[in-house]
């Protein structure tokens, strides 16, 4: 099951306290930066949950 990002809770990269840590943590390329926003590539997600556990805004959850 892929993850989803709540756009209202996400600070996007510019306002993220950890500058897009979810992107840096995802070794599968399932979370990418696109035009300053965080985007999910569901087919790359391997359900490791690192992004969910480390998002300071609690904006990432299971879809």
UniProtKB/TrEMBL annotation:
InterPro entries: 4Fe4S_Fe-S-bd, 4Fe4S_Fe_S_CS
Domain 4Fe-4S ferredoxin-type intervals: 36-63
Domain of life per record: Archaea
Stretch forming the signal peptide: none
Gene3D superfamilies to which the protein is assigned, alphabetical: 3.30.70.20
GO molecular-function terms, A-Z: oxidoreductase activity
Protein name: Ferredoxin
């Amino acid at each position: 099951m892929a993850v989803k990002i709540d756009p209202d809770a996400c600070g996007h990269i510019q306002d993220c306290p950890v500058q897009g840590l979810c992107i840096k943590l995802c070794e599968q390329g399932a979370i990418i930066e696109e035009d300053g926003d965080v985007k999910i590539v569901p087919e790359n997600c391997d359900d490791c949950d690192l992004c969910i556990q480390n998002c300071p805004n609690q904006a990432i959850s299971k879809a």
